Amino acid sequence: MKGKKLLIFLTIFFLLSFIYIDFKLSNFEKDVRNEIIKMRIFRYILVITSGMVLTSSGAVMQILFKNPLLDSYVLGISGGGLFGFILSSVYFKGNLLISIFFSFFFSLLSALISLSFSSNIKSDRKVSILISGLLVNILFSSLVIILSIFSKRDITFLFYALMGSFNHIFISKNLFLYISFFVTIILTTVFIIFKSKELDIMSIDEDIASTSGVNVKKNFFFILLIIIYQTSLIVSFVGMVGFVGIIIPNILRMAGVVKSKDLISGSFLGGASLILVADFISKYSFSFEIPIGVVLSLFSLPFIFWIVKNNFE
Amino acid sequence: MVNIENLKFSYTKGKDFLKIEDLSIKENGIYSIIGENGSGKTTFLKLLSKLLEGYEGKIDLLGKDLKRIKEKEIANIISYIPQKIYLHYDFPVYDFIKYGRYSKMDLFGNLTFKDLKDINFLLEKLEIEHLKKRNCFSLSGGEMQLVQLARSIFQGGKILIMDEPFSNIDFRHRKKIIEIIQELKGEKIVLISSHDLGICFNISDTIVGLKNGKMVGIGNKDLMKNELKKIFDTEIKFIEDDGKIYFYEGV
Amino acid sequence: MERLKNFSFIFLFFISNFLNAQRIISFAPNITETLFFLSYDRYLVGRTSFCNYPKNTEKIEIAGSFIDIDYEKVVSLKPDIVFFSGNLTDKSEKFLKEKNIKYYDIKMEKIDDITKGIDSIIKIVGKDYDTSKVEKIRNKILGIKKLGKDQKVLIEVSEKPFIIATSSSYIGSILKLFGFKIFEDEKPYINFSYENILSFKPDIVIFMHSFKNGKDKYSILKNFDKIKFVFLDDEKIDIFSRSGPRVIDAIDIIERDFCER
Questions:
Q1: Which chains touch C (3 or more CB pairs under 8 A)?
Q2: Into how many domains does chain B fold?
Q3: Distance CA A204, CA B98 (A)
Q4: Contacts from A196-199 at CB under 8 Å and sequence distance 24+?
Q5: C-side interface with A, Cβ within 8 Å?
Q6: At what angle do helices A3-22 and A260-284 cross, to 10 degrees?
């Protein structure tokens, strides 16, 4: 994606961003407008970062596992992360830092469980990782439900956590933490972009990568660790948001984007735009906000079907 | 240049899959490894390429112990072409070749101007310039093998290892690959494993026979043509003509 | 005369706004009803989409629904006080704390809680109110006369799943004051089964849902012909599920429809 195409895409993106922040703003009285804009900008930043992270992490996972149907949701990472987050919010009421540490720990755990499950299933590797990811996801989703019942959480909380919602309440006391998380996301993202050449070679063939001088195992686990960190951070804020990491990279591939660097940077723009539109729909289509996962799955199921059809013949 | 002593390797504990007591390659040239399916050809080549770990014994490549060779160093010693490469995602041919010199890339994945010139020179030499702008998925098996060969040559490993380079390749491309390999033999050690005895015997300087993970014979074609029964457990017929040797099943 | 009326109205409106510049959002229909009952509706700036009584509520802006509150709307309404009634979520609490808005969760689960709830609302809003109105409710509740005979009442809340209201629920607590026997449980609403029907043997069954074939399942009881089935319409369902000032209506309905003289 170069030059003109990128320009058109960016224009659309900025237009979407403008609509997102400006929508029905004139309905509000002048003196509260600033407050509303502030709230929307915080939400906008969360939406954009989540879109970028969830999509690029999907793209990277698809390269690492050589399976176009993977993202953090399918692999069970988000399920684990959500469980860790809720677990910590039960025991350490509301401490964001501890919650995110728990979320990261359980994301890692779920990824490990998922991987060890899949290595024990004697089937096509593409299928086995999907099945084990699904099992881990079900396991942690159930645990989330049980934990919520035990901790007497209201049912709407579950409704939004399991399907994802960007309606996060930012607390000004935590502003410094938010900024530091944002910085770590930026840094790790830059790191992954720098790792795109290793990802490229690893996606060709692991033996070739190895003899070309890439430490395949080290790179695999290190990149996976970073993806898990990013995902667990996002899950702590928005809950489980799936599918966006599958569709955008696959659409990009269909459009002829093949190199990891282009795929990842394209995912940033595509993921951010898609999530922005989806959140807009989820925010305004009904009298109350519907979870973003509902909108996204309706969007993406035809695509998922198409991808499965093309990959499991 | 390649020195192997008491090499032992097993996939499952207690059962040696490969056992080579002594093998040394002292000069450049083409070396073929022949043997039945499961005789350990691929395992042997993977061991040399540092793709398998946990072997006993000693492998010296260019005077260095394989275990002590660092990740990025291996790229200058070994160029490896696997038996079959199954691409999951499409990839541009040019970048495919370019990544041969991964070990020389900077942080941003860029190569020096000289390196880039080398690619073009190589593409011209191998007569695959027309593939430069295409993607790997659109290539035929033969074309892909040529691209792989270009990649390995560009990588610049002193030892070129090719696992079954002629299987499923059409005649025209096979001929071309053979020509390229023969040009390379002055400057590289080319290790080939193949079931195509005709090619092995006619292009190799030395042929190594493997059976059940053990070396059953090593030598030039005149020596090895009489060892075939030992290696394959069956009578293999051949005709010699004008210094060339032609095999047939005789049924 | 008309002019004077208009003028005085505008004057009063301004005065009341200057003196009592309180802005209240109610996120529970029973609280909304209470606010209207106490004539505090002039401070009410926001409600939920299911606050539908009295009719004047329609004029008040909607700031939330049964799922979640509309955070942007809440900010734009600039409330001083936000009321919940047992439905305050962690998220809403976090939000209101962050925005420095006072919030109160007035729990009015049983009939006894109504006067307490009204008292605390009066304390919070802290403005003049009509004392006679509160007294009326208090007297109405105190005036409930127990019936002589023990009649068992089963209150069906939903058919599928089969859920009933117990003695801890609002409607249950009213009926209990009348001397009816209600299924005893700590939780206000519980799952029920056919076996439970057989062992409980109700004399009166109240349907708080619109599924009309609900009475079929009671045919397993021997005294099926003698059972009194009461179907409540939507308005009555509201009256019997929202613990608030309409308890007066609730008591009247029970005296009129349930008690055979």
A1: A
A2: 1
A3: 13
A4: A196/A259, A196/A260, A196/A261, A196/A264, A196/B109, A197/A260, A197/A261, A197/B99, A197/B102, A197/B105, A197/B109, A198/A223, A198/B102, A199/A60, A199/A63, A199/A64, A199/A223, A199/A260
A5: 49, 62, 64-68, 70-72, 75-76, 78, 87, 89-91, 94-95, 98
A6: 20
- Condensed to tens digits (0 to 9), the pLDDT of residues B119-169 reads 999 999 999 999 999 999 999 999 999 999 999 999 998 999 999 999 888
Does C21 lie in the same domain as C52? yes
Q: How many domains does chain C have?
A: 2
In the structure, do chain C and chain A come into contact, i.e. share 3 or more CB pairs under 8 Å? yes
CA C251, CA C245: separation in Å to the nearest integer? 11
DSSP E strands in A144-298: the ranges are none
How far away is chain A from the Cα of B72, in angstroms, using its nearest Cα?
Answer: 4
Tell me the one-letter amino acid at B95. Answer: D
Q: Cβ B90–A258 below 8 Å, yes or no?
A: yes
- Indicate if C159 and C100 belong to the same structural domain: no
Q: Residue A265's Cα: distance from chain center in Å?
A: 15
Chains with 3 or more CB pairs under 8 A to chain B: A
Do C176 and C86 lie in a common domain? no
Task: Count the neighbouring beta carbons within 10 Å of the beta carbon of residue C190.
Answer: 17
Which residue of A37, A89, A167, A178 is the best one to mutate when testing the C interface, meaning the one whose CB has the most C CBs within 10 A? A167
Residues A82/A161, Cβ–Cβ less than 8 Å: yes
Residue A203, classed as helix, strand or coil, is helix
What is the distance in angstroms between the Cα of B8 and the nearest Cα belonging to chain A?
21
Regarding whether C205 and C109 lie in a shared domain, the answer is no
Q: For the stretch A39-53, what's the b/e string if a residue is b when 16 or more beta carbons lie within 10 angstroms of its beta carbon? A: bbebbbebbbbbbbb
Strands B64-65 and B56-61: antiparallel
User: Which domain does A96 fall in, by range?
Assistant: 44-311
Structure-token match 């004392």, residue found: C131
Phi, psi of C81 (to 5 degrees): -130, 135
Domain membership of residue A12 (yes or no) is no
Sites in chain A below the pLDDT cut of 50: none
Give, rounded to a whole angstrom, the gap between the first and last alpha carbons of chain C.
53
For residue A178, is it within any domain? Answer: yes
SS3 call for A291? coil
Instruction: Provide the H-helix boundaries in chain C.
Output: 2-19, 29-37, 71-77, 90-98, 111-125, 131-142, 170-177, 194-200, 234-241, 247-253
Asked if A153's CB is within 8 angstroms of C67's CB, the reply is: no
Residue B211 sits in a domain whose CATH number is 3.40.50.300
Which residues of A are less than 8 Å from C49 in CB distance? 287
Q: How do B189-193 and B29-35 pair as beta strands?
A: parallel
Residue C90 has pLDDT above 90, yes or no: no
Q: What is the number of domains present in chain A? A: 1
| Length of chain A, in residues | 313
**Cα distance between residue C229 and residue B148, in whole Å:** 84
Which residues is C81 bridged to in the sheet? C24, C102
Q: Do chains A and B touch, with touching meaning 3 or more CB–CB pairs less than 8 Å apart?
A: yes
pLDDT digits (tens, 9 = 90+) for A223-263: 999 999 999 999 999 999 988 999 999 999 988 899 999 99
Amino acid at A266: G
Predicted complex ipTM = 0.89
What average pLDDT score do residues C124-134 get?
Answer: 82
Q: In angstroms, how far apart are the furthest CA atoms of chain A?
A: 66
Cβ neighbours for C110, distance < 8 A, ≥ 6 positions apart: C168, C169, C170, C173, C243
Confidence at residue B233, expressed as pLDDT on a 0 to 100 scale = 87
Instruction: Please give the residue range of the domain that contains residue B196.
Output: 2-248
For chain B, the maximum distance between any two Cα atoms, rounded to a whole number of angstroms, is 59
Question: Residue B135: its chain A contacts at CB < 8 A?
Answer: 258
C244 lies in which domain range? 152-258
